[in-house]
Amino acid sequence: MSGYNESAYKQARDTAIALPCPFERALLSLCAHCHKSRKLLLAEREAITCTEQRANTQCHAFHQALHANARFALHMDPQQPWPFGKEIRAQCGGILGLRDILGLPESDPGVDIAQLVSTALAKHGDVSDFPYSEIMRAIVHYEPRKRRGD
Which of 89, 31, 85, 21 is nearest to 55 (CA)? Predict the structure, then answer.
């Protein structure tokens, strides 16, 4: 049994992070970056916070739309929470799918999430107007990197 008090950690995390990043797992897995994010170290763990309310609101809207559209594509029960692997597929695959739809180069060293969502909003007008059928293909085909030793 671990000696960590998980509820104390969650309370400290909630206190330290005013704007939680909905794409925290994508950022921590290094499939993307964001110039609006800031990394924090809490109890020997990494956490990500957003530095701008407007960008955070836009990213949350995109994240919610990804979840709503990806449940069917990833064969998920709507009543069940998101397992880690499928969350990574939704976040990283969704970001990369949106990048592809916007015609941005794959050779880019890393996708900037806030900039990507802002560009997509300028082109499509609203998060609900993004071409999710194309984004879902990227989510379904996204393979998370293998763990070390596997």
Answer: 21
